[in-house]
Amino acid sequence: MNDTAGSPGNTAGPGNAAGSQDGFNAGSDAGFQDGAAVDRLLRDAGMDGDGGLRPALLELRSLSAGQPVPSAAVASLMVAAERAPRVPAPVPADAPAAVPADELAARRRAKRRITMTTLSVAASLAAGGAVAVASDQGIRDTIVALNYAVTSFVAGTGGESSDQAGHTPSTGPTQPGGTPAVPVPGAPALSGEDTTPATSPASGAASGGAGSPAPATPGTVPPSGITLPDNLGQGTLTPGLPGADTPGAGTPGDRGPLNGAPLDEVTPSLPGQQPLLPLPTTPPASPSKGQ
Amino acid sequence: MTDTLADEDIQILEGTAEADPAVLFSAAYRAYSGAVLGYLRARGVDDPEAVTQDVFLAFFPKIGDLTGGLPGAKSLLFSIAHARMVDHYRRVERRPDFSPYDPLHDARSTASAEDHVVGQNGGAAALLEGLAEDHREVLALRVVADLSIEQVAGIMGKSQGAIKQLHRRALQNLKDQTLRRNQAHHE
């Protein structure tokens, strides 16, 4: 039914609209329905008797004829016509999800995957950079030297520590907790090697006296170059050592091993550490003839 | 506009509103994409085909929250299309696109078969030229989009009584304008 066939200036009415996809029959149906819709509009506006307006309205309705071709993005969201249900059947709520719903979930999963991949790559790069920095020998040595200097200063060795801080402090593991850096007996005494030859007997004595408190442990080099006697590590000290009568031996209260004090009464040391002996300022004198 | 295929789409929209969003989306596209395109053409939006696709892309995420079945889907679609149209004219106001007017190349007199086949529909859209903004909008929504008074009131933000009055005045103005053009054409 061509309602617009006779209308002037309307060579192609909706009944014969080119936009009709299903051919003439569908176009006719569409035209009929358009005409009915226009009549309803005019009736609602109280202008249903006005014949002059109807063609204009039908021409306006022709703008909506046809279906535009969906873009790629829109088509990806649609279900193919052949897969769409023709007969409206009740779909149970627990029906398995169709492919398009899975596509949406797959897109979400892909986005999450990309985010996780980016985060993991960034974390790996950060960890690798941290490992590279930590494995740098120079940085490690610097940290050890700094620790040595701080602990020596805290232990109260004063200037002696400052002299020793310049040496390579690779003397092995240091005590944790900021305790005085007393090297473990038997540890390589690299600092001892750099000092005067007088310390080598002390090193030998220290290694020989495993069961007794070593008077001079490796690494604790007297900066003043005082040579310790070999018999210190063997416990042969007796009261009244010449050091007690020697000028400059200090006050009677300084009962170090050279001043007659047993080795046990030397300067108290931290548990587990070798006792630190107070070093005399003067070289030991020879045994007195009277004994 | 509605054919046998659209009837099935309508049934899909009515019956499976809580099921597969892609099925609902497909049915909505088949049922209303032509009306959305016609509305955007009637309002003179640039590249109405592309904007129609944008409207449906904006519509898809909201399918899950859709209520009201078929009328609800239609209202939502044209609400989005109306917003796109408003955005278009705001952009035009801020950045007007100047083009020289040549009356010899102005084909807006009467609709020709050639124009209709090519898809320009310059005559149909030109019917609304010269009308007030509100009149053009109400006619585009009522006539081209085939929306009810209630739906148009919701989109335009007016009462139903105001829309009825606006619709009546718009039809009267359209009638007067059409008569003037026909008289000028005959002369």
How would you briefly describe this protein structure?
The complex is a heterodimer of chains A (291) and B (187). By secondary structure, chain A is an all-alpha fold.
What report would you give on this structure?
The complex is a heterodimer of chains A (291) and B (187). Chain A has 291 residues and is an all-alpha fold. Helices cover 40% and strands 0% of the residues of chain A. Chain A starts with 22 loop residues before the first helix and ends in a 46-residue tail after the last helix. Residues 1-23, 82-86, 164-223 and 232-250 of chain A have low confidence and may be disordered. With 187 residues, chain B is an all-alpha fold. Chain B is 70% helix and 0% strand. Chain B contains nine helices and no strands. Chain B has helices at 4-15, 21-42, 48-59, 69-94, 113-118, 122-126, 133-144, 149-156, 160-186. The longest helix of chain B is centred in the last third of the chain and has 27 residues, at 160-186. Chain B is globular, with a radius of gyration of 18 Å. In chain B, 42% of the residues are buried. The interface between A and B is large, with 60 and 68 residues.
Strand content of chain A: under 5%
Please tell me what the overall shape of chain A is. rod-shaped
Overall pLDDT of chain A, averaged? 61
Main pleated-sheet profile of chain A: none
Number of helices of chain A: 9
User: How much of the sequence of chain B is in beta strands?
Assistant: under 5%
Give the helix/strand class of chain A.
mainly alpha
Work out the radius of gyration of chain B. 18 Å
SSE topology sketch:
The complex is a heterodimer of chains A (291) and B (187).
Chain A: H1 23-44, H2 54-61, H3 72-77, H4 99-134, H5 137-155, H6 159-165, H7 190-194, H8 199-208, H9 242-245
Helix pairs in contact in A: 1-2, 5-6
Chain B: H1 4-15, H2 21-42, H3 48-59, H4 69-94, H5 113-118, H6 122-126, H7 133-144, H8 149-156, H9 160-186
Helix pairs in contact in B: 1-2, 2-3, 2-4, 2-7, 3-4, 4-8, 7-9, 8-9
